Amino acid sequence: MALARVGYLGPEGSFSHEAVLTLADVEPVACASIADVLAGVADGSLDSGLVPLENAIEGTVSATIDALVFDYNLVIEREVVLPIHLHLLAKAGVTPHDVTRVSSYVHALAQVRGYLAGLGHAQIEQTTSTSEAAREVAESSEPWAAVGSKIAGSLFGLEIIAADIADHPGNATRFVEVGRGAIAAPTGNDRTSIVCFQDADRPGSLYGILGRFAARDINLTKLESRPTKLGLGDYCFVIEFDGHVGDDIIGDCLADLQAHLVRVKFLGSYPVTGEGSSDRREEVGEARRSAAQWITSLRSRIRD
Asked: What domains lie within the chain, and their CATH numbers?
């Protein structure tokens, strides 16, 4: 049986490459950009794609979320959370004091601002990925350096000349695997992502959206506004919450939103990495069962 072709932001040695290697029974396919990954999934040349969605330090990866919201009708099938360790990579014999240029992907550079401030003599350059930066350093005769992963250094023959240079500890990136339409089966520990487009900008419109979730005890895990690109001040809302579209309460909430308030774009229901939502849903379920029993006991006292 042929392995599933999964695209990722290449070349080899990128953090996206590390993330895709955590998936079983797949053929990793390096792509030049996030847009190329998503386009390959959309046109069928790739079975799926693994793209970065959110970083613990820099937040949402706008190239990914905007493409999923506006450019493609793809569905998130799963998430992969990868701890991120950023190092300064250079050829043997080069020291941080020698470096004249530091390059990396824009999000990686943003995560090491403090360290780079101490290299005031070095020029900062953006590349399409952390591994592309490492490759450029390996091919150059200049005393350049790249911000990237240990695996990128090994692949391109570079040494770590400064280790773990991120400005904040606990750095991690959440990647999502996207496909052409199939929704992942519910596991009991799931997350759903949607986009809500307002039909009009009026007072209380966001409250009207969020109230649907609050009334059903649905726990929101993320709320973000994104410009619709239709005009200044025109925004949509990206919402993530515990639960699966296959759950009755989630389906009821989405139908309510679609029918009464906004246009909803479904981005996927998929298993959560780690623990949390299943315990929360069980607590909510128990509270609702207890409330239902209370109502039943009251109704039993109504006179004939």
From this structure: 1-83+172-182 (3.40.190.10), 87-162 (3.40.190.10), 183-299 (3.30.70.260)
